[in-house]
Structures are given as C-alpha cells and as structure tokens.
Design a protein that fits this description.
The protein is an all-alpha fold. It has a domain of 190 residues: Orthogonal Bundle (MetI-like fold), CATH 1.10.3720.10. 72% of the residues lie in helices and 0% in strands. It contains 13 helices and no strands. It starts with a helix and ends with a helix.
Length: 301
C-alpha cells in the first residue's frame, strides 16, 4: 500500500528546484552580510576586518564596553533607545486614533490621508533638510524676539531648539507614522461593527466598548505597529542626519565610525544592534501569538 502511495505521489517539476535555489540565493544575499559581520565580531585580539579569522574570543565586545575612540557608545545607545520608545508610543497612539477617526467620513478626509502618507514618497534626506531648515528659522525667530524684548542673556546662552525629542522626533514620525496609519486603516476596514453594537446593547460606554471589545481584537495589529515604530526609528539615518542637533543617535555614530575605526570593534557594535532588533521582533511575534491564543480561548468559553 505504501508503494502504491509513493507511485501516485506527484513529482515536483524541475522548475520547483530552480525557484528554490533562486530563493535560497536571495536569502543569502539579504542575510549574508549580517552573518559575516556576526562571525567577524568574534575575532581574536589580533584579528582584523576580513577573513581568515585569527582566533575566537569576546575581546572586541569587551573593547566596545570600554569605548570606541572619542565616541561615547553607551550614551548614543541610550539616546537611540529613548527616541525609538518615544516614536513607538506616539506612532501607536496616533495610528489607533486615526484609524478610529477614519471609520466615518468627514470633510477633508482624503486630503488628510494623502498629506499623512506623502512623506513615504519623498526622499528621506529632503525631509531631513526641510525639518532642519524649519528649526533653524525657528531659532532665528526666537533669538530675534529675545533681542527685541531685551533678553540678551538668553540670546547669549541659547543654542538651538533642535534635539532628540523635537526635530529628531518629528523626523522619525514622518517615517513611522504612515506605516502605522496604513496598518490601522486596513484593520478597521475589515472590522465588524456588530461587536460594538452588541456591547452598546448591553449598556457599555464608548470607553468600555473600546477597552473590552475593540482593543482586544486589534491588539495584534497594534503590536505590529509598535514593532514598525521601534525598528524603523532604531536604525534610521537619513532623516536623522540633518535634524538631530548636536547629539547623534547610535546609527549616526556607527556611520561615522566606519571611516575611522579599523578593528572588529565596529562589527561587535553591529552585532549588538542587530541582536536588539531581532529581540524586539521576536518579542512582538510572541506577544501577538499570546494575544491570539487568549482571544480564541475567551471565545470558546
């Protein structure tokens, strides 16, 4: 009987294997550099930036802890984390609020939508330059007003309004918010309002409806928006470059180090940042799976 089943089993055509090989090469092309950097970060103390490896150790991770030249890696790391967390929270709040608002038509909704997603098609460096120029003009206006009103001491001590949670935060939101909006629009487009109607029939207030009905259903998508917000902000360079002020984020410091550091310590830094990104991704996927199981368990009660 087993032999008969094997005979009747459909043989895969040769095109399947060619496409599988092509896909494997594509995946290798995507992740090959990451794997190479990961391996070279474990070079021995005498190792260089290329193969062959000269021993295996954690020497360069220890060297990274002690600092890289004049760059304070720990401070740059913390700045990037704080900025990414702020961007994540605002992206989730704005995206969910916009998704709820766009469930009903209102005057100018089409224009608001296109303005919200327009930054996706604009070159990142142009967005950064525009934000930087806006804040420089704002600085000039602040200094002029302070001079006119006689606050010369303030003018002498004033530097710039550009910073981590002003211009840089706005620059990152122009990148993360459109993704969050598109995700939430797609979620609410297929959301069944009958659940909310049932809640209202049972006497639920609008807040209770949102907390106990809407939020559990859209929870996995909200986690996805948060994942988009953090990861996109975490490694953003172009939109940050002209709008950060005088304190760089970790990606900008890493970009600067590529022209001056000639040891595998830069690979160790790249490995740590990549591990953090993958940790966030895996954590979000686990949270989505947990929420999905919880919702199914509640439905079966």
């Amino acid at each position: 009987m087993q032999a008969v089943r094997l005979k009747h089993r459909e043989r895969r055509p040769a095109s399947f294997y060619w496409l599988a090989l092509l896909f494997g090469l594509f995946v290798l092309f995507l992740y090959g550099p990451v794997i190479t950097i990961f391996i070279l970060s474990f070079q021995g103390p005498e190792g260089g930036l290329t193969f062959p490896m000269r021993g295996v150790s954690l020497h360069w991770f220890s060297a990274l802890r002690d600092g890289v030249g004049d760059v304070d890696i720990a401070s740059a790391f913390l700045r990037s984390v704080r900025l990414a967390l702020a961007v994540t929270v605002l992206t989730v709040l704005f995206s969910v609020a916009a998704g709820l608002a766009f469930r009903k038509r209102f005057r100018g909704d089409t224009a608001v939508f296109y303005v919200s997603v327009a930054s996706l098609i604009m070159p990142s460096i142009i967005v950064s330059l525009g934000i930087g120029l806006t804040f420089r003009l704002l600085d000039s206006g602040v200094k002029y007003l302070a001079t006119v009103t006689g606050h010369q001491a303030f003018v002498d001590s004033y530097t710039t309004s550009m910073g981590l949670f002003t211009s840089a935060l706005g620059a990152h939101l122009t990148w993360t918010l459109p993704f969050g909006l598109l995700v939430m629009f797609a979620v609410f487009n297929r959301f069944n309002p009958a659940y909310e109607e049932a809640g209202r029939d049972l006497g639920a207030t609008p807040w209770q409806n949102f907390r106990h009905i809407v939020l559990p259903i859209i929870g996995p998508s909200v986690i996805g928006v948060a994942m988009f917000g953090f990861t996109l902000s975490w490694d953003e360079i172009a939109r940050t470059s002209q709008a950060i002020g005088d304190q760089n984020t970790l990606p900008l410091e890493l970009q600067g180090l590529t022209t001056s550091v000639t040891t595998p310590v830069i690979y160790a830094l790249g490995t740590l940042t990549t591990v953090l990104s993958f940790t966030i991704l895996i954590g979000c996927l686990v949270a989505v799976r947990w929420l999905t199981r919880r919702r199914l368990a509640a439905a079966l009660r």
